[in-house]
Amino acid sequence: MPAATQIARAIKTHKGKVTVFVPHMAMSGGTLIALAADEVVMCEHSVLGPIDPQINGMPAASLIHVADTKPIAEIDDQTLMFADIGRKAIRQLETAATELLVEHIPQERASEIAKLLTSGQWTHDYPIMPREAQELGLRVSVEMPAEVIELMTLYPQPTRTQQNVEYLPSKRERPVPAGPPAA
């Protein structure tokens, strides 16, 4: 998430008011960027997502859990190293999120929200609906301008082309041997 953190910090230093529009979803890095805004405008069914770090495709919090609960003799070195990286990544991201939130939310609450979003309490794909985001204390409204929705129609998303079912090759008839070779 280094790129998202860099973008979020750039947004935070912008001198004018910044509004982030989320017509569909802003997951992970998109949520981090949204935290930097002065306001987030979502549709009724739009979602944000947790910003919990992923290490090598695995939740950092889960790696830490394994390292903390399993006997050390039963944990391979790579998992222990990933857990160490995970602790650092969570701490770094929690600090960054707190810094982004503290301008509009009291320090203590900003820290609580940042901890919740980075801790792995939810799965990485957990959908945070607008009402839940508001209950957390995020500056979210559902007053999506019609112009934003209209603008989105100009950028249709490609339909998914990846097959969900893998077809195996059909059974082939084996060639019948022609008989013994001629002498």
| Count of helical stretches | 7
β-sheet strand percentage: 5-15%
Name of the CATH first level: Alpha Beta
Give Rg in angstroms. Answer: 24 Å
The level of helicity is: 40-55%
**What is the name of the CATH topology?**
2-enoyl-CoA Hydratase, Chain A, domain 1
Shape estimate: flat
Task: Compute the separation of the termini in Å.
Answer: 72 Å
Tell me the total number of β-strands.
Answer: 7
What does the average pLDDT come to? 91
Q: Could you give the order of the helices and strands? A: HEEHEEEEHHHHEH
The CATH architecture category equals Alpha-Beta Complex
Strand order of the largest sheet: 1-3-7
Structural class: mainly alpha
- What is the domain tally? 1
Low-confidence runs: none
For the sheet with most strands, the description reads: 3 strands, parallel
Protein model, in words:
The strands form 3 sheets. The chain has a 3-stranded parallel sheet. Strands 2-4 form a two-stranded parallel sheet. The radius of gyration is 24 Å and the shape is flat. It has one domain: Alpha-Beta Complex (2-enoyl-CoA Hydratase, Chain A, domain 1). The longest helix is centred in the middle third of the chain and has 25 residues, at 77-101. The model has no long low-confidence stretch (mean pLDDT 91). A hairpin with a 2-residue loop joins strand 5 (54-55) and strand 6 (58-59). Helices cover 44% and strands 10% of the residues. The chain is built from 7 helices and 7 strands. The protein has 183 residues and is mainly alpha-helical.
